[in-house]
Design goal:
Elements: H1 17-38, H2 42-65, E1 76-79, E2 88-90, E3 96-99, E4 106-109, H3 142-148, H4 160-185, H5 188-206, H6 212-223
Antiparallel strand pairs: 1-4, 2-3
Helix pairs in contact: 1-2, 2-6
């Protein structure tokens, strides 16, 4: 986000998702406007124009998705933005003993607590990988072995790609368990509302990257009143 630390913008705490997401978009608009005005690279300026177009669409949608006037501050919950497996310690029985990396923990709107934690994000893989269909390490060339396997890890003699696909498969199945648990804990209409919030947050987070055109098309459909989830190509 460039020089956003020096921007004269509200820093919170915010009373509502509306106020918070407006600021997030303001940061993007300021940064991309500066790129457009100052960059000498034509491709960079064109990218900035694309991002600005989508960010403005999202800004116009904020009041349609999130109410601006609330009698009470919106309910929040602690949110760990980087809850991947390396930050979760377990004992020999598989019981969680500690969660690390709390320095950037935030109080986020309650709907953010339904977002998949980092260790459940990733590609969708419904079919379980079959170990025998992957190459053994001794079948790989030296160059491939460096890419596919870490010599410091015990890969069981198999190409590391097998274990990557296995993790993708297991995460896909665990996401189903996670979703089922959410349905037990949340009313359907609240869960649907939280999905809308998460999609919008993902759109803001990704609109200055590779997904800008896809997000722009999604925003156009939301503007037309369609109820459609944002597909970023991964869970």
């Amino acid at each position: 986000m460039g020089d956003h630390l020096s921007y004269d913008i509200p820093r919170g705490p915010f009373r509502s998702s509306h106020d918070w997401l407006n600021v997030e978009l303001d940061i993007i608009l300021r940064h991309q406007t500066a790129l457009l005005e100052n960059s000498k690279d034509q491709d960079e300026r064109e990218d900035a124009e694309d991002v600005l177009s989508v960010a403005r669409k999202l800004l116009a949608l904020v009041p349609k998705v999130f109410p601006s006037a609330l009698e009470e501050p919106e309910t929040t919950a602690l949110y760990h933005h980087d809850l991947h497996l390396e930050n979760i310690l377990v004992n020999e029985q598989g019981e969680i003993t500690a969660v690390l990396d709390w320095e950037c923990v935030s109080a986020m709107p309650l709907w953010m607590s339904t977002k998949f934690p980092k260790f459940l994000e990733g590609p969708v893989r419904e079919e379980e990988p079959q170990r025998d269909s992957y190459l053994d390490m001794d079948q790989l060339s030296n160059k491939s072995a460096v890419v596919a396997g870490d010599p410091d890890l015990n890969n069981g003699g198999k190409d590391l790609l097998y274990f990557i696909h296995q993790m993708d498969y297991e995460a896909t199945q665990l996401r189903k368990v996670y979703k089922a648990k959410l349905k037990e804990l949340w009313l359907d209409w609240l869960l649907e509302k939280s999905h809308a919030g998460i999609d919008f947050f993902q759109a803001i987070s990704g609109c200055d990257g590779l997904w800008v055109k896809r997000i722009g098309r999604w925003a156009d459909r939301i503007e037309k009143g369609e109820t459609v989830r944002l597909d970023m190509g991964y869970a």
